[in-house]
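Exercise: predict the fold of this chain.
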Amino acid sequence: MLLIALAAGVLAAGGASAATTPPRAGCTDLDIPVTSGVVTARMRATLCLPASPAADVPLQILVSGGTYNRTYWSGLGLPAYSYAARATGAGFSTLAVDRIGTGASSHPLSTLVSAGMQADALHQVIARVRSCALTGQKHTRVVLAGHSLGSMAAVVAAARHPADVDALILTGYSHRIAPSELLTSLTSMYPAALEGRLLDPGYLTTRPGVRGSLFHSAGEVAPAVVAAEEATKDVASAAELPDAVLAGLSRDMSRRITAPVLEANGEKDSWACTAVDCTNADALHAAERGYFTVPLTTYVQPRAGHSLALARDGGAFTDFASIWLRHVLAEGSRSRS
């Protein structure tokens, strides 16, 4: 019944730079200090608030996938594809982060970047959010939303620190990845240093011209998005990729999550949906429900590829996620009262 109600609703509808007072509506860039093991780093993030932010508005922390940065959530600079703009329009605040080793965040030695490091960083960001130390605004309801490699980081963070999050959104994600797709991903990348980036050879980026077919479904991505993909492509650590797959796709890790989960994929996602049936939401649910002990909701965007938010109809997924979040966060509030 929840799926029916949600579908109906969609159809109807250095850290010193962080602010010390609640920012106004709009978007603000922040630098957040984080540590993991011997690494002290800085995580760059963009905080966006709705036009009329209510007290204690829920905050979505957005984690991008490999070779993307936080601009994935703002449509790679194309407003029509901005998950963040659509989410703030629905009344949420968003905090899109550059994972360590990407975007404007710190780039330690690539061999030191791991899924655990990303989870540590997210945990520290959430602790600052909940203590009002990040923006000066109170957020007692926190959501982690990930894409691809960012979904794996979100799983590890939510499993290690179950009290951190009130809901989890995983996109471009499933627990079974076809070996052929792993090989395709690896052969589609090479050291970013070959393109003149001043990074050690363990930082990889995509080879020229492969992103359209790698991350999208033919006919379901606008030419402007494909052009923006090449113009904004980022890097990923060669050490993080296998570590994230082993940890982030682990049944043991997933079953430690205590927050409700929304798993959303494009029907034609070659990464998440080659070894898993994504024909429709029910098929995806049947394949994935055994990996979680918490309520699992599934969503499949017809014809879309791996980068769901950038598909022609990606806004439908964002609207579905907003309706789902309002429902599960309200349920969570009632259960705590």
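Check your answer against the key: The chain has eleven helices and eleven strands.
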